[in-house]
Amino acid sequence: MEVKITTEGKITVITPNGRVDTSTAKAFEDALMGAAQNSSQIAVRFHEIDYISSAGLRVVLMLGKKVAAANGALVLTDMPEKIFSVFKISGFDKILKICSSLEESQQFFK
């Protein structure tokens, strides 16, 4: 798994790729928490993720709590249907902001 981090205006855009499971969750966590050290406006794009396990969901929830504690905003975006289904089944779609595209998420930060 790789994680690409870019900046678009005041928003940090995180794009993981591959699988997020127990073997990659620590690297995923390190990348997300590192990005949260420098930004409180974060969009995570999931369009390059093939699979996310409960370990990955835990990391996303931790990021959400960290960003909220800094009075920031976290938006999850560009989810393939199978990834969105995991978030929906787990109820995360009710506690985290999920947008269909990066463009939509950028409007959320304004």
Major sheet: 6 strands, mixed
Strand content: 25-35%
Low-pLDDT windows of residues: none
Radius of gyration: 12 Å
The CATH topology: Transcription Regulator spoIIAA
- Individual helix count: 4
- Counted up, domains total 1
Query: N- to C-terminal separation?
Result: 31 Å
From N to C, what is the helix and strand string?
Answer: EEHEEHEHEH
Helix share bin = 40-55%
Q: So what's the overall shape? A: globular
Which architecture would the CATH scheme give at its second level? 2-Layer Sandwich
- CATH class reads Alpha Beta
Description:
The chain is α/β, with parallel strands linked by helices. It has one domain (2-109): STAS domain (Transcription Regulator spoIIAA). Helix content is 44%, strand content 31%. The chain has four helices and six strands. It has helices at residues 25-38, 54-69, 81-90, 102-109; strands at residues 2-8, 11-20, 41-45, 49-52, 73-77, 97-99. Strands 1, 2, 3, 4, 5 and 6 form a six-stranded mixed β-sheet that branches. α1 (25-38) packs parallel to α2. The longest helix has 16 residues, at 54-69. The mean pLDDT is 94.
Topology of helices and strands:
Blueprint: E1 2-8, E2 11-20, H1 25-38, E3 41-45, E4 49-52, H2 54-69, E5 73-77, H3 81-90, E6 97-99, H4 102-109
Parallel strand pairs: 2-3, 2-4, 3-5, 5-6
Antiparallel strand pairs: 1-2
